[in-house]
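step=encode ok
step=design start
structure_in=
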């Protein structure tokens, strides 16, 4: 018992440490669990010598993974993307798996290992890619839909592979084709049975469970459903994962889906963590040292081939060049279902630990490169298109266009601004680097140029010398500063309006020459204040005067706020976090009787935003104000500086 507890503690400690480190490096947690497995396994420190027991426990992680996949697997969504799912999906799988399997067979591996490797490498990482698309709000973009469609078919194919692999591994099953056909036939019948149960029986059972008003009962019911479906399919000689997937798919059509998913997530994540640690134990540092060149070459070839293949297939199906190429970049890696397939093959003695270690190592390398590819997929796509297609020179704005507004960036904000400029009969020209957006806007008759707005030649082609106003519409202060520098080199008198998210760079941008800076967060607060005052019957003239004064004072009254329990150390720009802090001047304070200008608080970058004395409040008090007992000072500045100023005020 003590040895088991020690092992569990070591594994959990290793996993926690690895996940924290990998999060700091912006790498997915799957790689952290694999790394923890490498450290704990026979090839690392050897804390786990026999991995068979852990594999049996980790199989339940696969059950819950497939159950969760079933919950998210929507048949209407599948049909909506059927052109991609049943067009590019199967072709991508076959055209990746067959050549890879052929290469593995030619280098001397057995046909079974070659087929498993081909199937594993043909799959991409649903967990990493879909999570990134959701985080970026890109699921409904062209490349988002294409990526989702290919991944849907891959997930479906992975389920079928997991079902067929144990059958093909059983020598007593007879002819493999007959055995596989019989297994698929059982799966279809099972699907029909679970569909009937899931459509009419399970929802009523869950409703009865819900009436119990007990979270524990509902959680136990969700676990029971996943494990019961897995037990039924296992009893019929099929994969446990298939039953879990089918049960999840049926429950995915009910209104209990989100609650069930939330309830089983802790169990799924814990067991999946153990599973991926078990896969990591197949990797040996000594193995990597022996075959590192083949592993690196294999990872590079796999990513390049999948990228080209997927992009080419999507172009054949009529997708735009940028959509096809960006989808190929997103899906170039191997995936977590490849690990599942390899681990299952090891369990059935189809491949050795050494062979599995090489396959897993190649997949891990491709997944390690994925976060960087996801982050820069748009930029990489544009560069590749410019290089391969030799984009023609950006056309110039004609000489007759004068007094126009030049928009740097044509996203949501830029497009809204363009509409209102047109309504008030102002000409406008936009600059953007998104090829799809440019094509769409140009077809709609908008005047938009392709190019980088920080470059002199692009601004000149957009007619900056004849423009009346330049507006930076995207939220990138560093890019905005470069545009300001370039614009003022070309046209020193041109007024520039800059949009930012908050006030982190407000002073820097104004110092760089911006005529006005509009921080979204502060403007939203100002509009909310104005609407609230209007609803309280404050005269419109006073509200308008308040708005004008606030903007004239560069949002002084809105800058900074009181922190709560969780205090960030830096703002969105990475600068020291600035906050408001109230300091009460008590009878023992060293500052009593002194003027504010004697305290030299501004040298510490601390500003006295207001002084509260009895029932009065003085905003931005003068330097000759003498502090009294009972005064409350509202300080604004970086955290360290505010703390030092408070110490000076109270202790001297």
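sequence_out=
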């Amino acid at each position: 018992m003590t040895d088991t507890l020690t092992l569990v503690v070591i594994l959990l400690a290793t996993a926690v440490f690895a996940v924290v480190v990998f999060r700091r490096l912006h790498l997915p947690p799957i790689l952290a669990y694999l790394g923890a497995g490498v450290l704990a396994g026979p090839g690392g420190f050897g804390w786990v010598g026999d991995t068979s027991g852990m594999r049996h426990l980790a199989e339940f992680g696969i059950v819950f993974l497939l159950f969760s996949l079933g919950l998210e697997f929507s048949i209407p969504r599948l049909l909506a993307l059927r052109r991609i799912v049943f067009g590019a999906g199967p072709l991508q799988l076959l055209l990746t798996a067959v050549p890879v399997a052929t290469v593995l067979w030619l280098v001397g591996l057995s046909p079974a290992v070659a087929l498993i490797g081909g199937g594993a490498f043909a799959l991409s990482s649903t967990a990493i890619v879909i999570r990134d698309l959701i985080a970026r709000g890109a699921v409904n973009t062209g490349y988002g839909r294409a990526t989702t469609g290919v991944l849907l078919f891959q997930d479906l194919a992975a389920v079928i592979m997991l079902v067929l692999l144990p059958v093909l591994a059983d020598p007593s099953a007879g002819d493999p084709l007959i055995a596989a056909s019989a297994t698929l036939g059982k799966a279809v019948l099972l699907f029909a049975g679970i569909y009937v149960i899931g459509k009419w029986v399970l929802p009523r059972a869950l409703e009865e469970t819900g009436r119990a008003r007990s979270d524990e009962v509902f959680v136990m019911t969700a676990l029971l459903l996943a494990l019961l479906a897995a037990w039924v399919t296992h009893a019929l000689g099929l994969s446990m994962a298939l039953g879990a997937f089918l049960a999840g798919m049926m429950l995915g059509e009910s209104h209990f889906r989100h609650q069930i998913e939330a309830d089983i997530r802790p169990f799924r994540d814990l067991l999946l963590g153990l599973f991926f640690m078990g896969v990591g134990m197949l990797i040996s540092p000594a193995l990597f040292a022996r075959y590192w060149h083949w592993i690196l070459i294999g990872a590079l070839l796999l990513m390049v081939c999948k990228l080209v293949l997927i992009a080419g297939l999507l172009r054949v199906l009529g997708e735009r060049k940028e959509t096809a190429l960006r989808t190929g970049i997103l899906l170039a890696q191997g995936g977590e279902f490849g690990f599942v397939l390899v681990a299952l093959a090891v369990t059935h003695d189809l491949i050795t630990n050494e062979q599995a270690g090489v396959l897993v190592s190649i997949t891990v390398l491709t997944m390690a490169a994925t976060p960087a590819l996801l982050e820069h997929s748009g930029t990489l796509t544009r560069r590749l298109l410019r290089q391969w297609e030799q984009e023609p020179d950006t056309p110039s704005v004609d000489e007759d266009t004068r007094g126009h507004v030049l928009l740097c960036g044509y996203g949501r904000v830029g497009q809204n601004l363009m509409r209102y400029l047109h309504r008030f009969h102002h000409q406008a020209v936009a600059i953007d680097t998104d090829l799809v957006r440019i094509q769409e806007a140009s077809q709609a008759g908008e005047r938009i140029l392709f190019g980088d707005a920080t470059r002199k030649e692009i601004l000149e082609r957009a007619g900056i010398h004849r423009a009346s106003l330049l507006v930076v519409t995207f939220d990138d202060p560093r890019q905005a500063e470069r545009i300001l520098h370039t614009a003022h080199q070309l046209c020193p008198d041109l007024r520039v309006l800059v949009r930012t998210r908050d006030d982190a760079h407000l002073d820097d941008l104004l110092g760089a020459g911006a005529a006005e800076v509009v921080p979204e967060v502060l403007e939203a607060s100002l509009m909310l204040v104005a609407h609230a005052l209007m609803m309280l019957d404050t005269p419109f003239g006073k509200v308008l005067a308040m708005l004008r004064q606030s903007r004239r004072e560069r949002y002084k009254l809105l800058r900074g706020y009181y922190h709560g329990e969780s205090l960030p150390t830096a703002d969105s720009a990475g600068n020291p976090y600035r906050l408001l802090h109230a300091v009460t001047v008590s009878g023992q304070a060293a500052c009593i009787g002194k003027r504010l200008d004697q305290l030299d608080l501004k040298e510490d970058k601390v500003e006295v935003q207001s002084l509260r004395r009895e029932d009065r409040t003085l905003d931005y008090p003068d330097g000759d104000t003498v502090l009294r007992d009972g005064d409350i000072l509202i300080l604004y500045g970086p955290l360290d500086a505010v703390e030092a100023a408070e110490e000076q005020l109270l202790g001297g």
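step=design ok
step=annotate ok -> The chain has a mean pLDDT of 79.
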